[in-house]
Each structure stands twice: as structure tokens, then as C-alpha cells.
Design brief:
The chain is of the alpha+beta class. The protein has eleven helices and 14 strands.
Length: 329
């Protein structure tokens, strides 16, 4: 059982408990892969994750969730979870990262969770965030959100010792990115378009030799930006983000969450504290993780779980002999 370690940090036992939470959510969502029903798959993941979080020995507050209290009946921002014992923590969740790709049984859907000590995660409202991210091993500030695309690509290529034509940028396949995609290609770099799942897209930059992705560019959800930052805190890399509110209501929402400068450029350090635990379990198979596999009543999962304080990265293969029991109890 996890316990408060006395110095305000996270207990290492929470690493395995957090992994269990994403495993259960992934199994629940995977039962609805390819059914074409995004809402049902998302609800299944949310319900399972919330149920499992109730067993964990911490006093958690959801700071990145499924929306406001009146919009999301479960895992809403401000909701308290946990069994009421242990340390106070902030929680960021995306029970089903990639609802569309799960509904279509496409690659790279994940169940994702991050926790930090209280105040350790940016309270980001549910709106767009413009992002740039790269993996570890580069000088600080080698890329910048405010620099022209061609400059960032040239700087990254120089640091890697390759030509710009050897660089690939991961970008969400959205009409709003048409100019960005054109700029990347005009600079001579390649583009890997993804239909959804920008948390995975950011994490791919940390292992470009395996994934073929060197840099993440473009706008996606701000909550996903914080979760991606939590992962990079653990595994290494750089990320910058800036909120992109679409109306006055979103600006007011950001202010209510403590963000008074809407134009602020958030760094990795702004978005995630030095003591973060991040976990993701594959729902559908992809470049990062295998998806859930069902066979004769059992479920097999693959999870990556990381802790920034220790720099530990674990890959966990789990088998649940009774998949229904794994979700229900």
C-alpha cells in the first residue's frame, strides 16, 4: 500500500498502482475497438479508470480531466479520487487518448494517466494548445515555439548531424495545419500525419531511431500537452506550448484556472514538476505499445510507466486471467 513518504514526494509503490489503473481502462476501451462508437468507448474507459482510482492509496484531485463538472459526470476537473489515505496528489487523465482511432480500430490509442505531488501539474483548460516537442539529448532551447519552422528544422538537423531532408515532423492531420504542413515540406523535411493521439506523437520524438519521428509540431488539446510534458519529464526531451483560445469564454476559463497571461509560452518545467509518475497502456497496437489482446477470457496488456524523480522507465506485460473481473473488481 502506498503511503506518504514524509517529504511531500510520491511513493515509488504508486508506480505499480498507477499502471494498474491504465491497464483496466485500456481493457474496457478495447472491448469496443472498431465498433464505430467513440462515446461508448470513451465512457467505458472513464468508468473503469474512475472505479480503479478509487482503490489507490492517495488523496487525489483531478486537474486534467474529462471537462468541467457540469460537462463530465466522471473524472471532471476538481473531482477528488482515491481511497482517502496516503499523499495528496494532482492527477491528469486521458482514459482514452484517441477515441476516433479506437472506434475505427486504428493504431496508437492509449489509456493515459499522470500524477504529481500537489501543485505539480499545470491546470490547463480544455482548449487548443500550440506545441513543439523534441526528444532528449539536445541543448536547451535548440527549438522554439516562436521561431520559423524552417529555422527549427535546420537547428534540429544540425544538432543531429543530418540534413533537413532526414528530419520527419509528426503533425495532427487537421485542416488548420495546412500552412504548417506546407512549410515543413517546403523546408525539405518529411511529415508524418496522424489522425488523432498527439500524446503518442510527442512521445515518439524520444526514440526517433525506432519511430522515425524527430519533432512534433502543431496544435492539439492543452490537456494532452500537459500529459505529454509529464512523459517527457520522465523520459527526457523538450516541449513548449501556448494556449490558443477560440473565444472569450475560453479565455475566461483559463483565467479561472489561474492562467492570467493567455500568451504565455509554457515550458516543460512549467507544465510538469520534477516528481511525476506517467503511465500509458496500449488500447490498439502501435509504434509505442501493443494493444490489448483477448483470448479465451484472458486479456494481455502492455504498459509503459515512468517516474521522473528516479528516471526509471518500465515496460510491463500483464495477463488478466479473467478480463471481466479485472475491470469490475
Amino acid at each position: 500500500m502506498a503511503k506518504d513518504n514524509g517529504n511531500g514526494g510520491l511513493d515509488r509503490v504508486l508506480v505499480l498502482e498507477v499502471a494498474r489503473v491504465t491497464e483496466v481502462a485500456a481493457i474496457a476501451a478495447a472491448r469496443l475497438r472498431g465498433r464505430g462508437n467513440e462515446k461508448a468507448a470513451d465512457k467505458a474507459a472513464v468508468d473503469a479508470m474512475r472505479h480503479e482510482l478509487g482503490k489507490v492509496s492517495f488523496r487525489g484531485t483531478v486537474v486534467i480531466g474529462e471537462g468541467e463538472m457540469d460537462e463530465a459526470p466522471m473524472l471532471y476537473i476538481g473531482e477528488t479520487v482515491g481511497n482517502g489515505t496516503g499523499p495528496e496528489v494532482d492527477i491528469a487523465v486521458d482514459p482514452l487518448e484517441g477515441t476516433t482511432i479506437c472506434a475505427k480500430a486504428m493504431p496508437n490509442a492509449l489509456a493515459v494517466l499522470a500524477i504529481s505531488e500537489r501543485g505539480g501539474l499545470l491546470h490547463a483548460p480544455d482548449m487548443y494548445m500550440n506545441k513543439i516537442a523534441i526528444g532528449p539529448g539536445y541543448p536547451d532551447g535548440i527549438v522554439d515555439l516562436d521561431a520559423p519552422v524552417e529555422e527549427n528544422l535546420a537547428a534540429l538537423a544540425k544538432a543531429k548531424g543530418v540534413s533537413v531532408s532526414d528530419i520527419t515532423a509528426c503533425i495532427l492531420d487537421r485542416s488548420r495545419h495546412a500552412d504548417l504542413i506546407r512549410a515543413v515540406r517546403d523546408a525539405g523535411a518529411g511529415v508524418q500525419l496522424i489522425p488523432d493521439g498527439d500524446i503518442a506523437g510527442v512521445i515518439w520524438t524520444t526514440d526517433s531511431a525506432e519511430t522515425g519521428v524527430d519533432i512534433y509540431l502543431g496544435s492539439g488539446g492543452a490537456p494532452e500537452g500537459v500529459l505529454a510534458a509529464a512523459a517527457l519529464r520522465c523520459i527526457g526531451g523538450q516541449i513548449q506550448g501556448r494556449l490558443v483560445p477560440s473565444n472569450d469564454e475560453e479565455r475566461l476559463r483559463a483565467e479561472k484556472m489561474g492562467i492570467t497571461d493567455i500568451n504565455r509560452k509554457f515550458t516543460l518545467e512549467d507544465m510538469a514538476s520534477p516528481d511525476v509518475i506517467f503511465a500509458a497502456t496500449g488500447v490498439t497496437g502501435g509504434s509505442l505499445l501493443d494493444g490489448v489482446r483477448f483470448s479465451n477470457g484472458t486479456a494481455e496488456t502492455e504498459t509503459i510507466v515512468m517516474r521522473s524523480k528516479s528516471g526509471t522507465v518500465r515496460r510491463i506485460k500483464s495477463r488478466f486471467r479473467n478480463a471481466h473481473h479485472a475491470i469490475e473488481g
